[in-house]
Task: structure prediction
Amino acid sequence: MKPWILGLTGGIGSGKSAAANHFGSLGVHLVDADQAARWVVEPGRPALTHIVDRFGEQILQDDGVLDRAALRARIFQAPQERQWLEQLLHPLIREEMRNALDEARSPYAILVSPLLVESAAQRQMSQRVLVVDVPEQVQIQRTVQRDSVPEEQVRAILQAQASREERLRHAHDVLVNDRDLVWLQREVERLHDFYLTLQGGQS
Result:
């Protein structure tokens, strides 16, 4: 039987990766949209050529790999450039994710994506949505510490992502991750046991 797909999302610094990794350790097949986004711009892939044509060689690191920070800086200041990039990459990323989900052999598979709510196409790939949720102040603190970036940059990223309310509106399940890792892992195990009882992601 084909596994059903759980969409797992959460804002920056919410701990969705930690949650996803624990689901993975329980044997659930994970497909990460961020990883798919990295694969489609690897050296030798057509998308990277288009990006260099558009933004010039300075968008590459010395080893020919895309300089993601330089690209991010360029598109955050120019909405039309961000749009161009999304139109180029989104179909390629979707195809990459679909192929990876088709390989799943676990009872259900997880599509991990920070933009699940923003992307109707990704939402349509999921039968159920789990949101890892934390208060905004916690998101900012965690991200500043983890990535050593200024608070303004984190706030800019939060502005570009769906609002917390918007994410929660799409959630079938919510995991509030405002405690420690042990607690998070216990919550993941509780949800996993529940998900194993579902047919097609619906209770």
Notes: The mean pLDDT is 94. Residues 79-102 form the longest helix (24 residues).
